[in-house]
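Milestone M4 deliverable, item 7.
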Amino acid sequence: MQKKLTVTIDEEVYNGLRAVIGPRKISRFIEDLVRPHVVKKDMYAAYKEMAADRVRESEALEWAEGTFGDVNDEEK
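Output delivered:
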């Protein structure tokens, strides 16, 4: 269920939101930013969901393996 909320912001910020995000996408953008701060999610379920994302896991593994070379290249 959605609720309507009226928020007052500076005109410059509003214009920036419309220009960058788009006039019909501002509510979703703000909700996505605020949600992690106000809706607590079961940590176990969140990690399980992340692990199920094969593309994300592949990118994370690639990044992690790439950092090992950085450590070995450091001067002692």
